[in-house]
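Hi R.,

Here are the chain sequences for the assembly we discussed:
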Amino acid sequence: MRKLVIALFMAGAVALLAGCSTTGMVRVHPWERAALADPAMNPDRDPLDTAMMEHVFTSRETASGGRGVGGTGCGCN
Amino acid sequence: MNMPTLRRFSPFKGAWPKPEIVLATVVLFLGGGLARAEVKAGDIFPVLGATGLEGAVPETRGKVVLVDFWASWCAPCKASFPIYAKIDADYRARGLVVFAVSVDEKDSAYQSFVKKLAPPFAVARDGGQKLVREVSVPTMPTSYLIDRTGRVRFVHPGFHGAETEAEVRKEIATLLAEPASP
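And here is the predicted structure of the full complex:
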């Protein structure tokens, strides 16, 4: 039983370390961001819709602004 | 909470793992990082003709080469093209080759971009993203200035308008002034 626990612990540790080192498993590389840079990924792509949402937010919260950054997910420069 | 309490739950109970398991863990950890090494100043740039680029690869032997990685979906790349066109016009006769490599996976997007901007310098498409993966660019766009011996001397991650242009011009002048063979 103790050997099994040790084996499982080591397997987990190896998987964790390998996962940390091979960042490609989770990172989208700069040259792979075509889909993220698509205008459809921009939450503010419709100015009229954005203005309406701002108006609703201002009316309900008595506050405005702070809606994050503009643009899409190209991550260029 | 004290140490004896913690030690009671340790799976090892005094028996440490075998050295080969520890070694395998370390190799896995370090190997993953090394596999994705970026091409940096001082490295030899990969041979352009051997990476399956779609489009004519210019003759670069004995020349100073500016390789720029771009994409049709990248706004700074679009801004950089007119600047590289001016640089190409100013230094081509002195031995500079400007080569712009697109990482676009869609040929139609690439063709449309090239048709719209009509660059006077050589362009090609790395459709399979083999070269860009090998070089592992840190951001889009990134340009590499390669000396006459094929060694990367300067790397420019991103494009920052006049600032980048001034730096690139200064570096090109330095490289062009160097002799073809040491």
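The helical segments of chain A are 2-21, 47-61. Chain A has one domain: 2-61.

Let me know if anything looks off.

Best,
T.
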